[in-house]
Write a structure and sequence with these properties.
- A three-stranded antiparallel sheet has the order 1-3-2, with helices on one face.
- Strand 2 and strand 3 form a beta hairpin.
- The termini are far apart.
- The longest helix has 105 residues.
- It folds into four domains: 126 residues; 50 residues; 128 residues, 2-Layer Sandwich (Ribosomal Protein S8, Chain: A, domain 1), CATH 3.30.1370; 74 residues, K homology (KH) domain (GMP Synthetase, Chain A, domain 3).
- Helices cover 67% and strands 7% of the residues.
- The radius of gyration is 55 Å and the shape is flat.
- The protein contains 15 helices and eight strands.
- With 510 residues, the protein is mainly alpha-helical.
- Helix 1 crosses helix 2, helix 9 runs antiparallel to helix 10 and helix 9 packs across helix 13.
Length: 510
């Protein structure tokens, strides 16, 4: 069905529908007019269909022409690609021919090299046979002799170099060590660590002090018997003085007196017992808080609470009036600084230095036996510190010979903290007695001319008579003096015995 027929069919249906509609409405319709309109629409449709047909034909012609042009262009491109491919094939064939020629040349060269190698091996064998026959030694024997010769020369050369290095190191060691120690000391800034021998408790009124003292000083005697302290109440008005060998007990007594000052009624044994009991609880908490604060300050984490409380006890422990907590902090800082200067393990030095006197926290307990360094070792093993940290901490008095750089650094830091000006207190009389005793022990040996105690009694220099004692005897004499000092004298740390023998020969040329 073409477009004209479709239009006619549509118009017919429309006309019929219209006629039917209008007939239903009893309206008169002009059939002629409808027919004219239909014919006019048919003519327009025919004309439009003809136009479409012409345009379609023109479009088809254009597409056909474009396709023919595209085919022509593609044919030209295909021809060019075929020509290029033939050229590449020809070039590849030439390259392959050149590679084959190179392979032939390489094979010839390899054959020539192989022939020369075989000739060289044969020449070497003939040469070695002739050389062996002439020298009377096999090739293996000659090689071993040459190696022995070179080995001997290298060992001698290494010994010379090693001696030179050792000599240079000895020359620079003192200066380098001094520089490192000075840098470490300059980085440490801490106040004096000397503790007062007694504490004072102020009382608001003398009548209150009398109530605390009790009739015939019974209350004071009772407190002294329980806490092992000495209480002086009649030296100063409104003041009670407390002193003790065990500073934890002194602190408990101080807290107890402070509580008794505020008691409203009479003070008897029950009141004192309750005050002491409450004071001990408060001091336990105080020791933990002190230990926690110091541990955090040093930077050691995850410690057992019981160990933290033990560390806190160092706040109430002294040696030659030097506060052990401050001393431990100083040793930890100095050991860390020294380790950072020479590249040692900083963490091991920090822990070993800070805990090196940990045993002093419990060595005043009458139920505990052993020196403080062994107690330090036991405590650190109990709380699972590393073997390196334990060794660095407990060997600072050479109960065991230090085996690691960190242990030696802790030992040096301990000496620096203990010997710095103002660190410790000792009466002049006791100091002089100690030095004189040290010199007397050294002077008691045969062959000793003079003795000098120096470095605050940490070293004794012995001048030996060179006519009666030889070099070997000097070493033996120093060992005997050190042994006798260890047995007969009491001293902190260690004492170095420096025996000096000097010979002098003078000749005159004439």
């Amino acid at each position: 069905m073409n477009i004209v027929n479709i239009v006619i069919w549509v118009l017919s249906i429309s006309a019929g529908a219209a006629v039917t509609y209008f007939m239903g409405k009893n309206i008169k319709i002009d059939l002629e007019k409808i027919k004219e309109d239909g014919e006019r629409l048919i003519e327009e449709a025919k004309k439009e269909a003809e136009d479409i047909k012409i345009r379609t034909k023109e479009k088809v012609e254009e597409m056909k022409k474009a396709a023919e042009e595209s085919v022509e262009v593609n044919s030209k491109l295909l021809a060019q690609m075929e020509a290029s491919l033939k050229n590449k094939e020809a070039a590849l064939q030439k390259q392959e021919d050149r590679v084959n020629q190179q392979k032939l040349k390489v094979a010839e060269i390899e054959e020539e090299i192989s022939a020369k190698q075989n000739g060289s091996i044969k020449f070497d064998k003939d040469f070695l046979d002739k050389l062996s026959a002439k020298s009377g030694k096999t090739a293996v024997e000659a090689k071993e002799e040459i190696l022995r010769l070179y080995k001997s020369e290298m060992e001698q050369d290494n010994e010379k170099k090693l001696a030179t290095i050792i000599e240079q190191t000895k020359e620079n060691a003192q200066r380098t060590a001094q520089k490192i120690i000075i840098n470490a000391i300059q980085r440490l800034c801490s106040p004096t660590s000397v503790e007062p021998r007694a504490v004072l408790v102020e009382v608001t009124k003398d009548i209150v002090k009398g109530k605390i003292v009790g009739r015939d000083a019974k209350n004071i005697e009772y407190i002294e018997s329980l806490l092992m302290v000495d209480i002086v109440f009649n030296d100063l008005p409104k003041t009670i003085s407390i002193s003790a060998f065990n500073l934890v007990e002194r602190r408990i007594a101080q807290k107890t007196i402070e509580k008794l000052v505020n008691v409203a009624g009479d003070i008897n044994k029950e009141v004192i017992d309750r005050a002491i009991r409450d004071s001990k609880k408060e001091i336990d908490q105080e020791l933990f808080e002190i230990g926690k604060r110091m541990v955090d300050k040093v930077g050691i984490k995850n410690l057992d609470p019981e160990l933290v409380k033990t560390i806190g006890r160092l706040q109430y422990r002294t040696s030659y009036s030097q506060n052990i907590m401050r001393h431990s902090m100083e040793v930890g800082y100095l050991a860390t600084a020294l380790a950072s200067e020479i590249g040692a393990n900083v963490q091991t030095c920090k822990i070993g230095g800070f805990l090196h006197d940990l045993g002093k926290a419990i060595d005043q307990d009458p139920d505990v036996q052993g020196s403080h360094d062994y107690l330090t070792k036991e405590l650190m093993e109990k709380y699972h510190f590393s073997p390196e940290e334990i060794h660095a901490a407990w060997t600072h008095h050479e109960s065991e010979k230090p085996r690691t750089p960190e242990a030696l650094l802790v030992q040096a830091a301990d000496a620096l903290s203990a010997s710095r000006p103002g660190a410790r207190q000792e009466s002049l009389e006791k100091y002089l007695e100690r030095l004189q005793a040290l010199e007397a022990v050294a002077a008691g040996f045969e062959g000793v001319k003079k003795t000098f105690a120096i470095s605050a009694g940490r070293e004794v220099r012995v001048i030996v008579d060179s006519d009666s004692v030889d070099d070997a005897g000097t070493q033996l004499l120093a060992e005997k003096i050190a042994e006798k000092i260890s047995k007969e004298l009491s001293f902190p740390g260690k004492i170095k015995v420096n025996a000096i023998r000097k010979t002098k020969t003078i000749e005159v040329a004439k």
